[in-house]
Design goal:
heterodimer, A: mainly alpha, 7 helices, B: alpha+beta, three-stranded mixed sheet, 1 helix, 14% strand
């Protein structure tokens, strides 16, 4: 199986899909990469030869931030917001939605699984 | 939607003149302001503001990292003291 940038081993899927297994590569970037490296996006990843892979890796290395460095960059951006004491930073600290969404209901992605509070009145009790 | 680049960042004119004056006179006294929507520009670095949060003024010392943010981002308007009925047992 081909390896791009060390760890990532995309599988038996078409190249433009397989590339998306690398953190930081989405549908659009995957297609653009194929074009830049002159690789047929529909060819299976296993059929890529050394040359194709080195061309892809080269472009990625030179022009795009992916995987570890990208993760680090995102963490740094969040750390910056925290350090300067901004509102967005405080939302990150409390793991609540950052962009002004409602928190009365929903927001479960940020808040995690529901934590039921004992003794809190439910809707049914209020009606009765 | 983000702001049109044509307009440039929104900066409160009167606040800006006050900052300029404080730089010129080397007066490091905090500047009281209600303009929470004023963008922090590089000239503001090192200045101290008292930013109104709807109730009182919070001290904001501007550092380099804050450039591009707005003054209001550093003066929270809400105080969350936890939910009610925390200790209600039995």
């Amino acid at each position: 199986m081909p390896r791009i940038l060390g760890v990532d081993i995309p599988n038996e899927k078409p190249t433009h899909i397989a590339l998306r297994y690398i953190y930081g590569i989405g549908p659009a970037l995957a297609l653009r990469l194929c074009e830049e490296a002159r690789v047929d996006p529909l060819r299976r990843a296993k059929e890529l030869n050394e040359d194709d892979i080195s061309r892809l890796a080269n472009i990625l290395d030179r022009e795009y931030v992916v995987e570890g460095p990208l993760r680090r960059q995102i963490q740094q951006n969040i750390a910056r917001l925290r350090d300067i004491g901004s509102y967005r930073g405080s939302r990150h600290r409390r793991s609540l939605p950052v962009r002004g969404q409602r928190t009365k209901t929903n927001a479960r992605t940020r808040k995690g699984p529901r934590k039921t509070v004992a003794g809190k009145k439910g809707v049914k009790e209020l009606r009765g | 939607m983000s702001r049109s680049l044509k307009k440039g960042p929104h900066v409160d004119e009167r606040l800006f003149t006050k900052v300029e004056k404080s730089i010129k006179t080397n007066n490091r006294e905090p500047i009281k302001t209600w303009s929470r929507d004023c963008t922090i520009i590089p000239e503001f670095v090192g200045a101290t503001f008292l930013v109104h949060n709807g109730k009182f003024f919070l001290k904001v010392y501007v550092t380099e990292d804050m450039v591009g943010h707005k003054l209001g981002e550093f003066s929270p308007t809400r105080t969350f003291r936890g939910h009610s009925g925390g200790k209600a047992k039995a």
